Amino acid sequence: MRVDAHHHVWRLSRGDYGWLKPTPELLPIHRDFMLRELRPMLRSANVDATVLVQAAPTADETRFLLEVAKASGGLVRGVVGWADLTAHDAVATLGALAAEPLLKGVRPMLQDLADPSWIARPEVQPTLAALATLGLRFDALVTPRELKPLLATLERHPDLAVIIDHCAKPDIAHDAWQPWADDLAAIARHSAACCKLSGLVTEAGRGWSVDALRRYVAHVLDCFGTGRVIWGSDWPVLTLAASYAEWVEACDELLAGLTQGERDAIYGGNARRFYGLY
C-alpha cells in the first residue's frame, strides 16, 4: 500500500487560514481544495491511502478534517490535527481527541510562532508528555531556526513519537546548507524522530530540478536511514512549484538507487507503522 503521508484540504469560507492570503505568491492556491480534486492524482500515482494534515491553528479545522476523513471511503486513514498545547485544559482536550480513531497526531505550526524556542517552554512540557501517554504523534512543522530547540525538547521526551515535516525546510532556492545539515543530523542521531520527504520543491522554487534536490535528499537518507523517512506530497502547497505527478517522478528518480524494499518502506510501510494506519 502506497501512502501519501502529508496532504491538506481546505475550504476558504471556513475563515481560519490566516496564512493563506491572496498575495501574488499564494494566489494560485487561494481557493478551495478538496479530495475530489486530489483523487485522480492519487490513482495515477498508485496511492492507496493518505494522512490529512491541518492547515489552520483551530480546533474547528481539526473537526472539519475528521469529517472529511470519515466521508472519504477509507482513503484518508489518519488525521493530524491541531490543539493549543498551552491551554489550561490541553491534556483533557487531547484526551477527547485521542478517542477518535482517525486522529493520529497534532501539529502546532511551530514555524509560524515568533519564538523559535516555543516548543521548549516549560508550560508546553506537560502537554507533550501527555501526547506520548495518549498514543498521539507530534508533527514538527519547523524551519532550520527551530531545530536546536526541538532537539533539546526531544531529549526531554524520548517516548514522544515525532516526525519532522518537509525535511525542516532547507533553503534550497539559495543553496543553503548549514546549520540545517548539522542540526538535522543531530536530531536523527540523538532521537528516534522520523522525517518526511515532502515540501522540497516548494523550498527550491519554480526553477527546481532533481539535481538541486539530490544532496538534500541524500543527506536526509544518510541521517535517518530508509526506516525513518516517510513520503508525502504536501498537496496542494506542492502545486506552487510542481504537479503531483512531477513530484512523484522526481522522488522515483531520487530513490532509484535503493532496494525495492527500501522504496516500499519510504512510500508506505514507514507511514503505516509510524501513524498506526489500519
How large is the radius of gyration?
17 Å
CATH class: Alpha Beta
What letter string, H or E per element, gives the SSE order?
A: EHEHEHEHEHEHEHHEHH
Q: Mean of residue pLDDT? A: 96
Number of beta strands: 8
Task: Going across the biggest sheet, name each strand in turn.
Answer: 1-2-3-4-5-6-7-8
CATH-defined superfamily: Metal-dependent hydrolases
* Structural domains: how many: 1
- Secondary-structure-derived class: alpha/beta
Please give the count of helices.
10
What's the N-to-C terminus distance?
11 Å
CATH architectural type: Alpha-Beta Barrel
Provide structural commentary.
This protein is an alpha/beta fold and 278 residues long. It has helices spanning 35-44, 59-70, 90-98, 125-134, 147-156, 180-190, 200-204, 210-224, 244-254, 260-275; strands at 2-7, 47-53, 76-81, 103-106, 137-140, 162-164, 194-197, 229-231. An eight-stranded parallel β-sheet has the order 1-2-3-4-5-6-7-8. The protein is globular. Helix 5 runs parallel beside helix 6. The chain is built from ten helices and eight strands. The protein has one domain (2-275): TIM Barrel (Alpha-Beta Barrel).
Key attributes of the depicted protein:
single chain; 278 residues; TIM Barrel; eight-stranded parallel beta sheet; 39% helix
